[in-house]
Amino acid sequence: MRLLKRYLKLELGTLLKNDIRFQVIGRAEGLARDIQQELARARDATASCRGMRFNIALNYSGRAEIVDAARRAIESGVDPPASTSSDSANCSIRRASPTPICSSGRAAKCA
Fold first, then answer.
1. pTM of this prediction?
2. Does the structure show a pLDDT above 50 at 110?
3. For residue 94, is pLDDT > 90?
4. Are residues 74 and 34 in the same domain?
5. Are 16 and 45 contained in the same domain?
6. How many domains is the chain built from?
7. Exposure of 14 by Cβ count < 10 A (0-12 exposed, 13-18 middle, 19+ buried)?
């Protein structure tokens, strides 16, 4: 995690210069407080950038995303038997990001 923190500090200027918006997906609240603060600093500093998006998945699990999306759907009043794929997309953590997520743990190729 020290490497991540160091990278964020070193590359924040590059992100800003290139109009790149930094976003984190996953359960960042499960990371150390100092890492959370550095992630928030980079995310907040680049929030107005409108060029590319740099999405980083930390403490991320597809299964956890499904569980979290289901919880959000239920909390927002979605009726499970009547739910549609757009309901689940609206509750997904990736709802604001049209870009695919590539896993370094798989040999998948992202377009």
1. 0.66
2. no
3. no
4. no
5. yes
6. 2
7. exposed
